[in-house]
Amino acid sequence: MKLHVYLSGEIHTDWRQKIIDGCDEQNLAISFSSAVTDHEASDAAGDVLGKEEEGFWRDHKSAKINAIRTKTLIENCDVAVIRFGDKFKQWNAAFDAGYCAALGTPYITLHNEDIIHPLKEVDAAAFGWATTPEQVVDILKYVVSKQ
In this structure, what DSSP letter does residue 64 have? Predict the structure, then answer.
């Protein structure tokens, strides 16, 4: 089985690379995609439509341009991994989890135990909750390797 996994959420740590490397080390038939993880590039996505004086309109245009990528990749993935980090609130990750739930796309949440309570609804709709990228690799290995 070949699986396509969408990696969503926190962009300030190397969790994505740990999952990709772990799956590569296991020779798993998995391809990965992600939102734009360069914060500056993501914030500037709408600038191609003209500069804005007000931050709201710049963010609004950039969010719409970024949504073309995000929406398409989520709709075409087999499973999503959604990471909630400790340092920032990832509202975009919560949105992606809700979108996956609405589409019926299985997703795995990845976060520490100290934010279980604020993510209880997100976790309740998830197909799995992991606290480390290695656990995610183990879940994906099980999914693609068991016949």
Answer: H
Cross-strand bridge partners of residue 33: 6
**CATH for 3-145?**
3.40.50.450
What would the pLDDT profile of 79-88 be if each residue is shown by its tens digit? Answer: 999 999 987 7
- For 95-104, letters b (16+ CB in 10 Å) and e give ebbebbbeee
Q: Residue 133: is its pLDDT beyond 70?
A: yes
| Domain extent listing, the chain | 3-145
C-alpha to C-alpha distance for 132 and 118, rounded to whole angstroms:
19
How confident is the model over 41-69, as pLDDT tens digits? Answer: 999 999 999 999 999 999 999 999 999 99
CA distance 14 to 124: 26
**Global pTM value:** 0.94
- Classified as helix, coil or strand, 129 is strand
